[in-house]
Design brief:
The protein is built from five helices and two strands. The chain is mainly alpha-helical and 146 residues long.
């Protein structure tokens, strides 16, 4: 899409951190487009830790480090809690997890709320093409309901 105020092209890539193929697609897209800025839904602390995993080249391998890297997101994975509605949030998380793990066959170690190989590859590609990287944290807006 084209940004309406300055006429710049904006590309939005949605990720689910599930497959090595999609991670490679994201990396290739950034390398081909050579954007001036890449905005990522993770924290700088996460990236500083993930870049040490130089030889991780599959989503299955990345999943092994997911919980360890999750502590660098700045918030726990249960960061969207509403007073008096904890039961509803717990039900939502349970439904999302069941849907992704069972219906889409993503596997038991899949965590849709955590950055994975796609984010790691996007950071690496952005650095290679000289793009500015902006980190939005573990969530775009923690006050927005899922």
């Amino acid at each position: 899409m084209t940004e309406r105020f300055h006429g710049k092209d904006v590309y939005l890539v949605g990720t689910c951190n599930q497959s090595t193929m999609l991670a490679n697609r994201t990396k290739k897209l950034i390398e081909e487009l050579k954007p001036d800025t890449v905005i990522l839904q993770t924290s700088e602390e996460w990236w500083n830790s993930a870049k040490l995993l130089q030889y991780v080249d599959s989503q299955e391998e990345m999943n092994k480090y997911s919980s360890r890297l999750g502590r660098y997101l700045g918030k726990s994975e249960s960061y969207i809690w509403y007073p008096g509605r904890n039961w509803l949030q717990m039900l939502r998380w349970g439904m999302y997890t069941t849907l992704f793990r069972n219906f889409f066959r993503f596997g038991h170690d899949f965590r849709f709320e955590r950055p994975g190989l796609e984010i790691k590859y996007a950071c690496e590609a952005a650095e290679r093409v000289g793009a500015k990287i902006h980190f939005l944290g573990g969530e775009l807006d923690h006050k927005t309901r899922m």
